[in-house]
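Progress note, sequence design subtask.
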């Protein structure tokens, strides 16, 4: 003779795999899983850059491709324009010539000059400092994203529309 487990009267219960589970508890678990899933989707959407990165590079430069690949590897959609002269794009975006590097990019209304790490670009887009015109890593720093050679300590600078700079990040 087989004995059935007593089911409490007056409670909504369901059997799953031979176990009795209160309906309210089941709804709570389903809601918790759904909330966790929705939160992770929202976090992924926030982490992904909303705007594509448009890069202007001189066709003769060999290191710009390394920086472009660095940006793509970090989740950015990159559009590349090979141009004979990058200077007009630097001027249009307000990049002071003393902060110049080999390529110029534009993302979310900001200028990105040179080998700026993707994490710094993502932070700029997240924080959106009111006075910022853009970020730069002036020159050709060995070990910066896209540049060969041993890592050399450098700073990413933020610049404003008057060309004033401040240290945005140290690497």
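Output:
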């Amino acid at each position: 003779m087989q004995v059935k487990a007593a089911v409490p009267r007056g409670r909504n219960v369901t059997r799953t795999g031979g176990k009795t589970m209160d309906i309210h508890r089941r709804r709570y678990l389903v809601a918790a899983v759904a909330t966790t899933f929705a939160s992770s989707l929202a976090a992924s959407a926030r982490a992904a850059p909303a705007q594509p990165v448009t890069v202007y590079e001189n066709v003769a430069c060999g290191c710009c491709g390394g920086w472009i690949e660095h940006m793509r590897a970090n989740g950015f959609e990159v559009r590349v324009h090979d141009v004979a002269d990058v200077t007009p794009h630097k001027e249009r975006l307000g990049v002071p010539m003393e902060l110049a590097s080999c390529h110029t990019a534009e993302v979310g209304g900001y200028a990105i000059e040179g080998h700026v790490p993707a994490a710094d670009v993502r932070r700029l887009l997240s924080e959106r400092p009111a006075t910022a015109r853009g970020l730069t890593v002036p020159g050709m720093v060995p070990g910066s994203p896209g540049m060969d050679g041993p890592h050399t300590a450098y700073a990413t600078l933020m610049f404003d529309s008057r060309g004033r700079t401040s240290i945005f990040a140290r690497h």
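The helical segments are 23-47, 64-73, 87-93, 118-127. Work on this subtask will continue into the next period as scheduled.
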